[in-house]
Amino acid sequence: MSLLQSFRNLSPRARVGVGLGLLAWGAIGLHVSDRAEERYGLTPTEDDKAALAKALPRITTVERENGRGGGGGSSSGGDHQNQR
Prior knowledge:
The structure is a single chain. About 55% of the residues lie in helices and about 0% in strands. About 0% of the residues are buried. It has a domain at about 5-55. The protein starts with a helix and ends in a 29-residue tail after the last helix. It is flat, with a radius of gyration of 26 Å. It has helices at about 5-10, 10-40, 45-55. The longest helix is centred in the N-terminal third of the chain and has 28 residues, at about 10-40.
C-alpha cells in the first residue's frame, strides 16, 4: 500500500492531526534554522552574498515609445494601446 493510500485510509480527524503536525514541524524548523546556522558556523560571508548577487538575473525596464513609428509592435491595429 502506498503512502497516499495509507493517508487516505485514516479518519478525517487523524488526517487533520497529521496535517497540523507537519505544519508545526515546518514552523519549528523555520524558527530554529537561523540559530542552528549561527551555532554551526554556516552563516554566509560577504563574499558569499556578493557571489549570489552576481549569479542572480537582473531585470531592466525599458520605456516604450508612444508614437506609431516605433517598430516592434503589431500592425493589426487592435486595442493594443499603452496601458499603465
